Amino acid sequence: MHSISWLSLCWCLIPVVLISTIYYHWNGKPSEVLLSSARMALQLVAVGYVLVVLFAELSPWITGLVLTVMISAASWIAIRPVRQQPGFLRPAFTALLLAVGFHLAIALKLVLGVETWYEPSVMIPLAGMFFANSMNAISLAAERYHSELLEGKEEKAARLAAFHAAMIPQINSLLAVGLVALPGMMTGQILSGVSPLIAVRYQIMIMTMALGASGMGAALMLWQLGRIEIHARITNSAKKSR
Known about the structure:
Helix content: over 70%
Largest sheet: none
Radius of gyration: 21 Å
Number of strands: 0
Low-confidence stretches: none
Protein backbone atom coordinates (compact mmCIF):
# COMPACT_ATOMS: atom_id res chain seq x y z
CA MET A 1 0.00 0.00 0.00
CA HIS A 2 1.29 3.46 -0.89
CA SER A 3 2.22 5.57 2.12
CA ILE A 4 1.27 9.25 2.13
CA SER A 5 3.72 11.60 3.80
CA TRP A 6 2.60 14.70 5.65
CA LEU A 7 4.38 16.83 3.06
CA SER A 8 2.59 15.10 0.18
CA LEU A 9 -0.70 15.64 2.01
CA CYS A 10 -0.22 19.40 1.61
CA TRP A 11 -1.26 19.03 -2.03
CA CYS A 12 -4.76 18.39 -0.71
CA LEU A 13 -4.97 22.12 -0.03
CA ILE A 14 -5.51 22.72 -3.76
CA PRO A 15 -9.23 21.74 -3.85
CA VAL A 16 -9.84 23.62 -0.60
CA VAL A 17 -8.31 26.80 -2.03
CA LEU A 18 -10.17 26.28 -5.31
CA ILE A 19 -13.62 26.06 -3.70
CA SER A 20 -12.81 28.92 -1.32
CA THR A 21 -11.89 31.08 -4.32
CA ILE A 22 -15.23 30.32 -5.98
CA TYR A 23 -17.02 31.26 -2.76
CA TYR A 24 -15.06 34.52 -2.61
CA HIS A 25 -15.73 35.59 -6.22
CA TRP A 26 -19.41 34.73 -5.91
CA ASN A 27 -19.71 36.81 -2.73
CA GLY A 28 -20.10 33.75 -0.55
CA LYS A 29 -18.32 32.90 2.68
CA PRO A 30 -14.97 31.21 1.96
CA SER A 31 -14.43 31.06 5.71
CA GLU A 32 -17.02 28.23 5.87
CA VAL A 33 -14.93 26.04 3.58
CA LEU A 34 -11.63 26.97 5.22
CA LEU A 35 -12.84 26.47 8.78
CA SER A 36 -14.70 23.23 8.04
CA SER A 37 -11.68 21.83 6.17
CA ALA A 38 -9.32 22.78 9.00
CA ARG A 39 -11.69 21.28 11.54
CA MET A 40 -11.95 18.10 9.47
CA ALA A 41 -8.18 17.70 9.31
CA LEU A 42 -7.69 18.34 13.03
CA GLN A 43 -10.53 15.98 13.98
CA LEU A 44 -9.21 13.17 11.79
CA VAL A 45 -5.64 13.52 13.06
CA ALA A 46 -6.90 13.55 16.64
CA VAL A 47 -9.19 10.57 16.11
CA GLY A 48 -6.34 8.71 14.41
CA TYR A 49 -4.25 8.89 17.58
CA VAL A 50 -7.29 8.04 19.71
CA LEU A 51 -8.08 4.97 17.59
CA VAL A 52 -4.52 3.70 17.96
CA VAL A 53 -5.06 3.66 21.73
CA LEU A 54 -8.61 2.30 21.53
CA PHE A 55 -7.71 -0.57 19.23
CA ALA A 56 -5.14 -1.70 21.77
CA GLU A 57 -7.78 -1.85 24.53
CA LEU A 58 -10.55 -4.47 24.50
CA SER A 59 -13.15 -3.05 26.87
CA PRO A 60 -16.95 -2.88 26.47
CA TRP A 61 -16.97 0.24 28.66
CA ILE A 62 -14.55 2.14 26.46
CA THR A 63 -16.32 1.05 23.27
CA GLY A 64 -19.66 1.99 24.83
CA LEU A 65 -18.33 5.42 25.80
CA VAL A 66 -17.11 6.04 22.26
CA LEU A 67 -20.49 5.00 20.84
CA THR A 68 -22.25 7.35 23.28
CA VAL A 69 -20.11 10.26 22.12
CA MET A 70 -20.76 9.33 18.48
CA ILE A 71 -24.54 9.10 18.80
CA SER A 72 -24.72 12.32 20.84
CA ALA A 73 -22.72 14.22 18.22
CA ALA A 74 -24.69 12.66 15.36
CA SER A 75 -28.02 13.59 17.00
CA TRP A 76 -26.94 17.19 17.48
CA ILE A 77 -25.65 17.49 13.90
CA ALA A 78 -28.75 15.78 12.47
CA ILE A 79 -31.09 18.49 13.77
CA ARG A 80 -28.89 21.36 12.54
CA PRO A 81 -31.41 22.55 9.88
CA VAL A 82 -34.22 22.68 12.45
CA ARG A 83 -32.25 23.41 15.59
CA GLN A 84 -34.16 26.64 16.17
CA GLN A 85 -37.30 24.58 16.66
CA PRO A 86 -37.82 22.72 19.96
CA GLY A 87 -38.51 19.01 20.24
CA PHE A 88 -36.24 17.54 17.55
CA LEU A 89 -33.23 16.36 19.55
CA ARG A 90 -34.83 13.49 21.47
CA PRO A 91 -36.55 11.97 18.39
CA ALA A 92 -33.24 12.17 16.51
CA PHE A 93 -31.35 10.44 19.32
CA THR A 94 -34.00 7.71 19.61
CA ALA A 95 -34.11 7.14 15.85
CA LEU A 96 -30.31 6.83 15.64
CA LEU A 97 -30.12 4.52 18.64
CA LEU A 98 -32.73 2.07 17.35
CA ALA A 99 -31.86 2.17 13.65
CA VAL A 100 -28.09 1.98 13.96
CA GLY A 101 -28.21 -0.46 16.89
CA PHE A 102 -30.44 -2.86 14.96
CA HIS A 103 -28.27 -2.85 11.85
CA LEU A 104 -25.03 -3.09 13.81
CA ALA A 105 -26.37 -6.26 15.41
CA ILE A 106 -27.15 -7.73 11.98
CA ALA A 107 -23.75 -6.78 10.55
CA LEU A 108 -21.67 -7.91 13.52
CA LYS A 109 -23.43 -11.12 14.48
CA LEU A 110 -25.15 -12.43 11.37
CA VAL A 111 -22.95 -11.19 8.53
CA LEU A 112 -19.46 -10.98 10.05
CA GLY A 113 -19.97 -13.48 12.86
CA VAL A 114 -17.93 -11.42 15.32
CA GLU A 115 -17.61 -13.16 18.68
CA THR A 116 -16.80 -10.06 20.71
CA TRP A 117 -19.32 -7.34 19.85
CA TYR A 118 -17.26 -4.57 21.43
CA GLU A 119 -14.16 -5.25 19.34
CA PRO A 120 -13.23 -1.58 18.69
CA SER A 121 -11.46 -2.16 15.36
CA VAL A 122 -14.75 -3.55 13.97
CA MET A 123 -17.46 -1.83 15.97
CA ILE A 124 -16.24 1.77 15.75
CA PRO A 125 -15.67 1.97 11.97
CA LEU A 126 -18.99 0.27 11.23
CA ALA A 127 -20.88 2.41 13.73
CA GLY A 128 -19.28 5.52 12.26
CA MET A 129 -20.47 4.70 8.74
CA PHE A 130 -23.98 3.79 9.89
CA PHE A 131 -24.29 6.88 12.09
CA ALA A 132 -23.10 9.17 9.30
CA ASN A 133 -25.58 7.83 6.75
CA SER A 134 -28.48 7.76 9.22
CA MET A 135 -27.63 11.22 10.52
CA ASN A 136 -27.85 12.69 7.02
CA ALA A 137 -31.14 10.91 6.29
CA ILE A 138 -32.66 12.11 9.56
CA SER A 139 -31.45 15.66 8.91
CA LEU A 140 -33.00 15.72 5.44
CA ALA A 141 -36.23 14.17 6.72
CA ALA A 142 -36.60 16.64 9.59
CA GLU A 143 -35.90 19.68 7.43
CA ARG A 144 -38.26 18.63 4.65
CA TYR A 145 -40.99 17.59 7.09
CA HIS A 146 -40.83 20.95 8.85
CA SER A 147 -40.89 22.83 5.53
CA GLU A 148 -43.85 20.85 4.21
CA LEU A 149 -45.88 21.54 7.34
CA LEU A 150 -45.08 25.24 7.12
CA GLU A 151 -46.48 25.21 3.60
CA GLY A 152 -49.75 23.86 4.97
CA LYS A 153 -49.41 20.24 3.84
CA GLU A 154 -51.23 17.50 5.68
CA GLU A 155 -49.12 15.46 8.10
CA LYS A 156 -49.19 12.26 6.02
CA ALA A 157 -48.27 14.11 2.82
CA ALA A 158 -45.46 15.94 4.60
CA ARG A 159 -44.17 12.67 6.03
CA LEU A 160 -44.10 10.94 2.63
CA ALA A 161 -42.37 13.87 0.92
CA ALA A 162 -39.80 14.04 3.72
CA PHE A 163 -39.08 10.32 3.55
CA HIS A 164 -38.60 10.43 -0.21
CA ALA A 165 -36.20 13.36 0.14
CA ALA A 166 -34.24 11.63 2.88
CA MET A 167 -33.76 8.50 0.77
CA ILE A 168 -32.55 10.25 -2.41
CA PRO A 169 -28.82 10.10 -1.48
CA GLN A 170 -29.08 6.43 -0.50
CA ILE A 171 -30.92 5.40 -3.67
CA ASN A 172 -28.49 7.40 -5.81
CA SER A 173 -25.56 5.66 -4.13
CA LEU A 174 -27.02 2.23 -4.82
CA LEU A 175 -27.61 3.10 -8.47
CA ALA A 176 -24.18 4.66 -9.00
CA VAL A 177 -21.92 2.18 -7.21
CA GLY A 178 -19.72 0.25 -9.62
CA LEU A 179 -20.84 2.39 -12.58
CA VAL A 180 -19.94 5.90 -11.47
CA ALA A 181 -17.54 5.31 -8.60
CA LEU A 182 -16.04 2.77 -6.23
CA PRO A 183 -17.09 3.52 -2.63
CA GLY A 184 -14.50 4.68 -0.11
CA MET A 185 -14.30 1.51 1.95
CA MET A 186 -13.92 -0.70 -1.11
CA THR A 187 -11.27 1.59 -2.57
CA GLY A 188 -9.35 1.59 0.71
CA GLN A 189 -9.40 -2.20 0.91
CA ILE A 190 -8.21 -2.60 -2.67
CA LEU A 191 -5.40 -0.08 -2.12
CA SER A 192 -4.34 -2.01 0.98
CA GLY A 193 -4.01 -5.21 -1.08
CA VAL A 194 -7.33 -6.96 -0.37
CA SER A 195 -8.83 -8.94 -3.26
CA PRO A 196 -11.50 -6.92 -5.11
CA LEU A 197 -13.92 -9.86 -4.75
CA ILE A 198 -13.55 -9.77 -0.96
CA ALA A 199 -13.81 -5.96 -0.93
CA VAL A 200 -17.04 -6.24 -2.92
CA ARG A 201 -18.67 -8.43 -0.26
CA TYR A 202 -17.78 -5.99 2.48
CA GLN A 203 -19.09 -3.09 0.40
CA ILE A 204 -22.40 -4.85 -0.26
CA MET A 205 -22.79 -5.35 3.49
CA ILE A 206 -21.96 -1.70 4.21
CA MET A 207 -24.32 -0.30 1.59
CA THR A 208 -27.29 -2.50 2.46
CA MET A 209 -26.87 -1.88 6.19
CA ALA A 210 -26.47 1.86 5.57
CA LEU A 211 -29.61 1.82 3.43
CA GLY A 212 -31.56 0.07 6.15
CA ALA A 213 -30.21 2.23 8.98
CA SER A 214 -30.90 5.43 7.03
CA GLY A 215 -34.40 4.43 6.01
CA MET A 216 -35.31 3.11 9.44
CA GLY A 217 -33.80 6.17 11.12
CA ALA A 218 -35.71 8.57 8.87
CA ALA A 219 -38.94 6.63 9.33
CA LEU A 220 -38.59 6.55 13.12
CA MET A 221 -37.79 10.26 13.17
CA LEU A 222 -40.82 11.11 11.05
CA TRP A 223 -43.07 8.78 13.06
CA GLN A 224 -42.08 10.53 16.28
CA LEU A 225 -42.47 13.99 14.75
CA GLY A 226 -45.87 12.96 13.42
CA ARG A 227 -47.04 11.95 16.87
CA ILE A 228 -45.78 15.26 18.26
CA GLU A 229 -47.53 17.19 15.48
CA ILE A 230 -50.83 15.36 15.90
CA HIS A 231 -50.71 15.83 19.67
CA ALA A 232 -50.02 19.55 19.21
CA ARG A 233 -52.94 19.93 16.81
CA ILE A 234 -55.31 18.10 19.18
CA THR A 235 -54.16 20.29 22.04
CA ASN A 236 -54.64 23.47 20.00
CA SER A 237 -58.10 22.36 18.88
CA ALA A 238 -59.10 21.64 22.48
CA LYS A 239 -57.92 25.08 23.55
CA LYS A 240 -59.89 26.78 20.77
CA SER A 241 -63.08 24.89 21.61
CA ARG A 242 -63.05 26.10 25.19
